[in-house]
């Protein structure tokens, strides 16, 4: 996917009063959140226009503000307001353009917090493009990004209204299995291993057929020709992860 993130809807006119500017019953400012999201879009767009190849560096002030949004999204009112502002589409566009691992991690983390509430999780989960991108991020080279992606997916499959939708996507995206197994057999990051283990355990608990297919999967011809070493067995990967967690 290669597209610019869309700007949030117009914040409205005349909301100078503090009560009107507050998000729900919180003290968080609509104007500040709107400005931060808009600045994020401009930052990523300008960087991609200047240098389409080099890795982007996140300025300290920008990182601090985005981490504040990450924390704010744990509030139900803020999560709902972010959805109203089309934050899912904005963050998806940023992730697609991002060449900064820390920025990608933060954006996925914000989405993970938004997904903690049933209503916003439902809206987020219905975004097909986002679903596809998140599953591909399990193969990212950045461990913190994989950790936040795993946390988000675990949150979604743990909610009954959307778990079947995510299970269907996971069944169809064959790279999910190989990417999760690769993490289990190669990572030394205990937080990541624990979260991936929780995700796999939840998937197997929800879908016995998926569990059977992942355990008994055989190396196909494409894997043999493309990258024979990438074929991984469930049992050996689980054992390796267990060794790291001891």
Please characterize this protein's 3D structure:
This protein is mostly helical and 246 residues long. It has a domain at 1-124. The protein is built from 15 helices and no strands. The chain has helices at residues 18-21, 30-50, 60-72, 76-84, 87-97, 101-114, 118-125, 128-137, 143-157, 163-172, 175-186, 190-206, 208-216, 221-227, 234-245. The radius of gyration is 19 Å and the shape is globular. The protein starts with 17 loop residues before the first helix and ends with a helix. Residues 11-15 have low confidence and may be disordered.
Radius of gyration: 19 Å
Tally of individual helices: 15
User: What is the string of helix and strand elements?
Assistant: HHHHHHHHHHHHHHH
- Mean pLDDT across all residues, rounded? 88
Topology, number of strands:
0
| Terminal residue distance | 40 Å
What class, by secondary structure content?
A: mainly alpha
Q: Main beta sheet, described?
A: none
Unreliable stretches, pLDDT < 50, 5 or more residues? Answer: 11-15
Q: What global shape is seen?
A: globular
- DSSP strand (E) fraction? under 5%
Share of helix among residues? 55-70%
Family: Belongs to the SAAL1 family.
Protein name: Protein saal1-like
Organism: Notothenia coriiceps
Keywords: Nucleus
